[in-house]
Amino acid sequence: MLIPVILSGGVGSRLWPLSREHYPKQLLALVDDNTLLQNTVSRLDGLANKSAPLIVCNENHRFLIAEQLRNIGISPAHIILEPVGRNTAPAVAVSALAALAHDPEALLLVLPADHLIANATKFREAVTAGVPLAEAGYLVTFGIVPSRPETGYGYINATDAIEDTIALSVERFVEKPNLETAQQYVESGQYYWNSGMFLFKASTYLEELEKFAPDILGTCRVAVENALEDQDFLRLDAAAFKTCPSDSIDYAVMENTNKAVAIPLEAGWNDVGSWSSLWEVCPQDEDGNVILGDVLTENVHNSYLRSEHRLLAAIGLDNVTVVETADAVLVTHNDHVQEVKKIFAILKATARREADLHRKVYRPWGYYETIDIESRFQVKRITVNPGASLSLQMHYHRSEHWVVVKGTALITRGDKTFILGENQSTYISVGVKHRLENPGKLPLEIIEIQLGSYLGEDDIVRFEDIYGRDKIK
């Protein structure tokens, strides 16, 4: 059985401010109506002997991912929840262990969730060609035929053909080169971009991991053995997984094994690793501009201009990226788009909210959007899906006023339960248990006014929660 393993643990910091830690790029619809995650799963349609996918993700993203898969009719075999990020080698190890529990001959097709592939047919043909190699014990990677010298990618040096196959033996993996070296690689015809996509038997990968990184395998075994199943989620043992060394498949296994082979792939691949990469794959107007949202331009060329909430006007610009969101604006020359991650790092180091969340924050019950915030008050618009419910909770530091704007609300306040309709309100004192539910068939919208000395999302004590969340997760 061919089991797709979708790695969805990245942050996508170079696509800030659209990509945030709690809403990263793989969950965004950047090039069409589907998100990158949805496109990654959908392009697998038509592969022979394919099972339901395994998704590996950050625990904070679990409900967003489950909902996005449900929207395209996909039921995953498991959504494996990492309590902390430990790079790709451990992520694939826990996937292999989970797969072997059900199929000792399982083949894993390992795919990042945030890449684009324009020609899905060629991609599936390459995967199909790799299946016999994986079954024979090879560790197959897919090397992208380079279209230009590129300093932002690692490379695979692959030369001699494997008999009766389209695969090449891997000589070595090399780090991101300078421009001169990249030019030499491309001219040689023996180097390929490292796509981060792999195909191998789960058992073969674990055997090689045990040879070269036994400490990773040991901690992953404990994390899986002590994991808890919760609906479609497989919660890895946090204590064990946090002790696991962080390493990539390349460093831990592929650079050391003698079983690595590469299948050349020419299918319009793009890792969407920067704003300039996104500009390349989006439709451009006659001036070479990608324009999204309410944007006016005058004498602007070869630029990516995106407005999410308000009018964006640009004059006399060339080769720039401007991205506007509700709470942040990015302006950069495209020669410097790789440095966006430095801004993201500063935001993280200074505990700025803009690194983690947008003003609109999705929850399993719906979403909320911050309308206004000051030191001792905050105003939110809360939308609760039909039949959904927030947790039974209380706050130590804030009181809340709720005004129903649309729909019908079922309110629990202390030992009372009552219904509120449009233009009705209630007040929740500090320390009072409360819950908000939508018993209707239409979305419920309320305005929430918070007042208090501390308004952080971690001032939540949960008593009951139908989604199994702890604290604010």
How would you sum up this structure, described in words?
With 473 residues, the protein is α/β, with parallel strands linked by helices. It has three domains: 2-270, Alpha-Beta Complex (Spore Coat Polysaccharide Biosynthesis Protein SpsA, Chain A), CATH 3.90.550.10; 275-340, no CATH class; 360-464, Jelly Rolls (Sandwich), CATH 2.60.120. It is 23% helix and 33% strand. The protein is built from eleven helices and 30 strands. The strands form seven sheets. It has a six-stranded antiparallel beta sheet with strand order 20-21-22-29-24-27, with no helix packed on it. Strands 6-9-7-8-12 form a five-stranded mixed beta barrel. The protein has a four-stranded mixed beta sheet with strand order 14-16-18-19, covered by helices on one side. Strand 1 (2-8), helix 1 (36-42) and strand 2 (54-58) form a beta-alpha-beta unit. It is globular and about 75 Å long. The two termini are 34 Å apart. The mean pLDDT is 94.
